[in-house]
Design goal:
Layout: H1 3-8, H2 14-36, H3 44-60, H4 69-101, H5 108-123, H6 126-137, H7 141-165, H8 169-177, H9 182-219, H10 225-235, H11 239-270
Helix pairs in contact: 3-11, 4-5, 4-7, 4-9, 5-7, 6-7, 7-9, 8-9, 9-10, 9-11, 10-11
Length: 271
């Protein structure tokens, strides 16, 4: 091989090699697992046909049987209320803690303490917080609201504080030089400049809380459409009703996303 050919040859890339070896290992382990599963008396082909038949019935023949459409919409709004309430509580508390966590607005020690605490809370999944609070409050909507609010605060404190920290330092310095106190700086410069980001992050958390509220309806007995979904799937095993509830949730989620997009667009235009 000539010197020119050696120069044209790509250098050894350790990162790509590790990724390729990892992917190859996963593929080999997956094939080995499928080959050695204990399938009991289940025939693979029959199982595939049965799954296709179930999915076809679920999504092409949706039908409410144990609840009416009006009841389903009512339960959906209960879930929506749970998500809204936890997001509202979380946003109010997070706004105060976010200001305390922002390095350009707070004492460095206080900022580190607040960020450390919310990082710990954020590391624990929402479901686990709900179950922890359920020990004191019992399974139900109270534990779900407290647990979801707890996790919402930790999530929003991080996003809010990072939004505040992106503010131009020159603006804050100019206000300080003109004699403005901390409250005046926050209300005249920080919040007006960050309001678009704050609303965007709050909407994102609301969407997350809506998904969590669906799961909490079944896992923590918080009620709402999630509980009916659980009953239809695990108690009645009515696949047609599962399909109808899935379509209802999907339509509502799309409407929610469209509404959030329009509000964000309107805010950007105003700014």
């Amino acid at each position: 091989m000539t010197m020119e050919e050696l120069a044209m040859k790509k250098p050894f890339n350790k990162q790509k090699t590790v990724i390729r070896l990892t992917m190859a290992s996963i593929v080999v382990l997956t094939l080995y697992a499928f080959a050695t599963f204990d399938y009991k008396d289940i025939q693979f082909l029959d199982a595939v046909i049965s799954t296709v038949h179930t999915l076809t019935t679920m999504f092409f023949q949706p039908h409410f049987k144990h609840i009416t459409f009006i009841e389903a919409v009512t339960y959906l709004f209960i879930t929506l209320g749970l998500a809204f309430l936890t997001t509202l509580f979380g946003a109010i508390i997070a706004l105060v803690l976010g200001l305390m966590a922002a390095t350009n607005l707070s004492n460095p020690t206080l900022s580190v303490v607040v960020k450390g605490i919310v990082a710990f809370i954020r590391a624990v999944p929402t479901v686990l917080w709900v179950l922890i609070f359920a020990v004191a409050a019992g399974l139900g909507s109270v534990a779900a609201v407290i647990g979801m609010t707890f996790h919402s605060v930790s999530y929003l404190v991080k996003t809010y504080s990072e939004s505040f920290e992106e503010l131009d330092k020159g603006v804050i310095e100019a206000l300080k030089a003109s004699g403005a106190n901390w409250i005046q700086i926050v209300f005249q410069a920080v919040l007006p400049s960050s309001i678009t980001y704050l609303i965007s992050w709050t909407f994102m958390r609301f969407e997350i809380n809506f998904s969590v509220a669906l799961a909490m309806g079944a896992a923590a007995g918080a009620g709402g459409i999630g509980y009916d979904f659980f009953m239809a799937s695990s108690y009645y095993y009515d696949v047609r009703e599962i399909g109808a509830i899935t379509y209802l949730i999907l339509i509502f989620a799309i409407l929610l996303e469209v509404m959030a997009g329009k509000i964000k667009k309107k805010l950007r235009v105003k700014n």
